[in-house]
Design a protein that fits this description.
This protein is of the alpha+beta class and 109 residues long. The chain is 43% helix and 22% strand. The chain has a three-stranded antiparallel beta sheet.
Length: 109
């Protein structure tokens, strides 16, 4: 019977695993990950303390219809209305008006 000789990558992996270097690196990375997680939590707590916390919930799902071929780029809530800003492709028209790039929608029914 013929025994298979390990390939170079397999030999390297076994040497690294046997030397303890792998465990050392794994433990260092785990410690760095834990430290980074704690810093992120502290930063988030400071953000909440400074700016407050508001819960978000989906109120309504609908489609905003426009007259032009466009992509919504920004949305701002103004009371019970949403102001949409669009990146619009007008085509052969020479001028773009405010109504082409902004739309105001009322929330609810």
């Amino acid at each position: 019977m013929q025994t298979e000789t390990p390939t170079a990558p397999a030999q390297t992996e076994s040497l690294v695993a046997g030397s303890g270097s792998y465990e050392l690196l794994k433990n260092r990375l785990r410690a760095q990950g834990t430290a980074l997680g704690q810093k992120a939590q502290a930063l988030n707590a400071a953000r909440v303390q400074e700016f407050g916390k508001s819960e978000q919930a989906l109120v309504l799902r609908t489609r905003a219809r426009t007259q032009n071929n466009c992509v919504a780029r920004d949305i701002v809530r103004i009371g019970e209305q949403l102001l949409f800003g669009y990146n619009v492709f007008i085509g052969l028209r020479k001028e773009t008006s405010v109504h082409d790039v902004f739309s105001l929608y009322r929330l609810g029914g």
